[in-house]
């Protein structure tokens, strides 16, 4: 059996290294996905209900019914913006300090690799694909929003070094998911099959 990872477009690798500067002592997170119940966006809203007293912000990109989320955001005065659909995250990824993925389904999202290639730190649910991302992310549980909010607060207060993690993740992505590496690995597989 052969395993061939997806490759990431060069435009992500070409982005300048992300510097987590905490402009005006703020932390900006991003989440991406279709606004469906199975994507678990309500859990993000629950997390951010614990963060209203801090300068921690979240932008959510994705298609779907925003009304339910927007109602909760407004009622609880959450620091979350619903950004709508985006076709190319490379155009905005440098605006953020951390990618937050809250999915409650096993599966893999190319966005993880794109973020790593761009040097954007990852905060992922603990059912994310550990075999690909490995230790290049911070993981959280999906059954304790307060604890996850505590992890985000620790990042905000610089108790967790996400800058170093982002650098390591970019190096890992350079070695594993560049297009030329993908092509070389694909040719190696063809060679092995045809021998």
| Major sheet strand order | 3-2-1-4-5-6
Task: Tell me what the CATH architecture is.
Answer: 3-Layer(aba) Sandwich
Helical fraction: 40-55%
Q: What number of domains?
A: 1
Poorly predicted tracts of residues: none
CATH topology: Rossmann fold
**Alpha plus pi helix count:** 8
Portion in beta strands: 5-15%
In one word, what is the shape? globular
Mean pLDDT: 85
- Nearest-angstrom radius of gyration? 17 Å
Backbone structural class: alpha/beta
Order of helices and strands: HEHEHEEHEHEHHH
CATH C-level: Alpha Beta
Largest sheet: 6 strands, parallel
CATH superfamily: Glycogen Phosphorylase B
The count of strands amounts to 6
In short:
The chain has one domain: Rossmann fold (3-Layer(aba) Sandwich), CATH 3.40.50.2000.
Give a structural overview:
The chain is α/β, with parallel strands linked by helices. It has a single domain (22-194), classed as Rossmann fold (3-Layer(aba) Sandwich), CATH 3.40.50. It has eight helices and six strands; from the N terminus they run αβαβαββαβαβααα. The protein has helices at 10-13, 41-48, 67-76, 110-118, 130-133, 145-156, 162-176, 179-194; strands at 27-32, 56-61, 80-84, 98-101, 122-125, 138-140. Strands 3-2-1-4-5-6 form a six-stranded parallel sheet, sandwiched between helices. The mean pLDDT is 85.
């Amino acid at each position: 059996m052969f395993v061939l990872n997806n490759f990431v477009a060069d435009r992500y690798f070409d982005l300048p290294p992300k510097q987590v500067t905490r402009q005006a002592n703020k932390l900006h997170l991003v989440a991406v996905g279709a606004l469906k119940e199975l994507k678990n966006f309500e859990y993000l809203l629950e997390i951010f209900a614990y963060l209203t007293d801090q300068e921690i912000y979240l932008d959510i990109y994705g298609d779907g019914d925003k009304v339910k989320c927007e109602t909760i955001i407004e009622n609880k005065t959450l620091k979350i913006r619903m950004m709508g659909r985006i076709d190319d995250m490379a155009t905005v990824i440098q605006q953020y300090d951390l990618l937050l993925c809250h999915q409650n389904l096993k599966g893999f999202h190319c966005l993880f690799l794109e973020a790593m290639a761009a040097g954007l730190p990852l905060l992922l649910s603990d059912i994310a694909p550990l075999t690909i991302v490995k230790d290049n992310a911070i993981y959280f549980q999906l059954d304790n929003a307060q604890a996850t909010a505590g992890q985000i607060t620790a990042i905000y207060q610089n108790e967790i070094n996400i800058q170093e993690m982002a650098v390591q993740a970019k190096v890992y992505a350079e070695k594993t998911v560049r297009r030329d590496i993908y092509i070389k690995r694909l040719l190696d597989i063809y060679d092995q099959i045809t021998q």
